[in-house]
Automatic annotation (TrEMBL):
Keywords: DNA-binding, Transcription, Transcription regulation
Protein name (database record): GntR family transcriptional regulator
SMART domains referenced in this protein's UniProt entry, alphabetically: FCD (SM00895), HTH_GNTR (SM00345)
PROSITE patterns to which the protein is assigned, alphabetical: HTH_GNTR
Organism: Devosia pacifica
Domain HTH gntR-type per the UniProt entry, residue ranges: 16-83
GO molecular function, one term: DNA-binding transcription factor activity
PANTHER family in alphabetical order: TRANSCRIPTIONAL REGULATOR, GNTR FAMILY, UXU OPERON TRANSCRIPTIONAL REGULATOR
InterPro entries: AsnC-type_HTH_dom (IPR000485), GntR_C (IPR011711), TF_FadR/GntR_C (IPR008920), Tscrpt_reg_HTH_GntR (IPR000524), WH-like_DNA-bd_sf (IPR036388), WH_DNA-bd_sf (IPR036390)
Highest taxon listed in the record's lineage: Bacteria
């Protein structure tokens, strides 16, 4: 009979939920444009291709709708969200420049050690460290969104955080360049932000985030040229 101390060292791995697996697959197809922006999405076809029932597909599509990647139209059904246009792109960055430097300045005084550790981990993963390979911008977009959300959460203003989240910034931006790898420039900018937050330097944190947003605008605006 096994001893109690032996049982404590035997961890049972939780299986990945089927709904999560379906979500991850459809998310990757949308971000890589295997499912083209604006195209109709058939629940029957997805279920057949993934070898699952309709239930996890519907669950995944509902999650993706909440993220702005899927649009549901009455009497028509689901379709991939259209690509953002230049006007929407400029408006997103206007909002980011208004909110994110301010949020980062506040976060410098309020961020806790756990949140700093999470930021460091996310930054390392975006650099391809820690045993996780960032294979595409869809992976990078997910990590980048988490990175910015942690900072918004650390500022202590829930309304501000919700406003930034509602833009679905990282999903829409990284859909513009589905076949390009994560840039070292963005990673270097993230490091500057983390250094300022660790130093509790509010002005440096605000400046680092403002520079990051402006440089990001310059990088992504080339899509519209």
């Amino acid at each position: 009979m096994a001893r109690a101390e032996d049982l404590k060292t035997t961890a049972i791995k939780r299986p990945t939920r089927l709904g999560d697996e379906v979500y991850n697959s459809v998310y990757a197809w949308l971000m890589s444009q295997k499912i083209q922006p604006g195209s109709r999405i058939s629940i029957d076809n997805l279920a057949r291709e993934l070898g699952v029932s309709h239930t996890p597909v519907r669950e995944a599509l509902s999650r993706l709708e909440a993220q702005g990647l899927i649009v549901k139209t009455h009497l028509i059904g689901f379709s991939a969200a259209p690509q953002i246009d230049r006007t929407r792109f400029d408006q997103i960055y206007e909002m980011r420049l208004l909110l994110e430097p301010f949020a980062t300045r506040k976060a410098a005084a309020l961020i806790d050690p756990g949140q700093l550790i999470t930021l460091q981990r996310l930054a390392a993963e975006m650099r391809g460290e820690g045993g996780r390979e960032v294979a595409s911008y869809s992976d990078f977009a997910h990590l980048d969104g988490e990175f910015h959300d942690i900072i918004a959460a650390a500022c202590g203003n829930g309304v501000l955080r919700q406003s930034l989240a509602s833009l679905h910034t990282h999903i829409h931006l990284f859909r513009l360049f589905p076949h390009t790898g994560a840039t070292t420039k963005a990673n270097a900018e993230h490091a500057e932000i983390i250094n300022a937050l660790e130093a509790r330097d509010a002005r440096a944190a605000e400046r680092a985030m403002r520079n990051h947003v402006k440089r990001s605008y310059a990088r992504f605006s080339t899509y519209f040229h």
